[in-house]
Please model this.
Amino acid sequence: MNIKNIRNYLKTKIGSSIVVMYYGSRNRKEVYRGVLCKLYTNIFTIRLYNGEVKSFSYIDVLTKTIQICI
Model:
C-alpha cells in the first residue's frame, strides 16, 4: 500500500462517516468521529460532530500512527 492508493481509496469515501484512531506516545489513544470533508495533496480533513475540523496526513496512515474505520 502506498500514499496514492490511500488517497484514491479516501477519494471514494468523501462525505462518509469516519472514525480515526490516533495512537500517540505512551500508549495514549485518541478517537475522532466525524465526516470526511476534503482531500489535499498531503493531508485530508474530517469535520467532527462537534463542528471542529481535524487534519491528518497520508503518511500517518502508511506508518500506522492512525487507523481509519469507515
In short: The chain has one domain: 3-69. Residues 4 and 58 are 9 Å apart (CA to CA).
